[in-house]
Amino acid sequence: MTTNGIKARASFDTQQATRIVKALERMPFNLARREVGKIMQRAFRPAYNTMRGLAPKQTGRLKKSIATITFFSRASKSWVVRLGPRYKGPNKSYTAHFAELGVKPKTKTTSGQFTFFGKGGKVIRTQRITAGVRKQPFVRPTLMKYRDVIPFRVAKGVREFLVSEFKKNT
Fold first, then answer.
1. Which pTM value belongs to this model?
2. pLDDT tens string 75-126
3. How far is residue 123 from each of residues 31, 110, 115, 127, measured CA to CA in Å?
4. What is the pLDDT of residues 7-46, one digit of tens each?
């Protein structure tokens, strides 16, 4: 989860992290990938619900675009979780950054006339239009609320998974 360079990270003490990583490396990769992905999804669920609740509801498209995507990055050899609006696929939102950051109002003038439909289907003709959007942050408040809680939820889920796998194998 990233906003203006701020990232939420799950970190463990070095001994614990080494043991967890070694235990996950000993497992078949597909099993570990599937289970850790599910654990991450569950850990991020409260943040996902909060972000969807805070998203502006004008059409609902932005709310539908919010997703939790989990994958293993072989380059950095770590799990990556991205929570936020999608920019690819069927439920994408191109305007999420406008809602989060806002758009400064500007007045545009033309020598002719702007023609558009107003409320109630009336045709409006004017030479000046003032356009802008006030900011309605939904990513930053979610990040600030959950960035200390999520690492503990992830660590707890991974530990429980490893304990259950250990009990199955012994």
1. 0.73
2. 877 778 889 999 888 899 888 888 899 999 999 888 878 787 877 778 888 8
3. 60, 17, 7, 14
4. 555 554 556 666 766 777 777 777 777 888 899 899 999 9
CA 21 and chain centroid, separation = 25
Query: Token pair for residue 135?
Result: 């900011």
Place of tokens 């707890």: 156
Tokens read off for 107: 């007045």
CA 72 vs CA 45, 79, 110, 167: distances in Å: 19, 4, 52, 25
d(C-alpha 88, C-alpha 53), whole Å = 21
**Two structure tokens written together for 99:** 């809602």
CA atoms within 13 A on the CB side of 80: 9
Look at the block and give the residue holding tokens 């250990």. Answer: 166
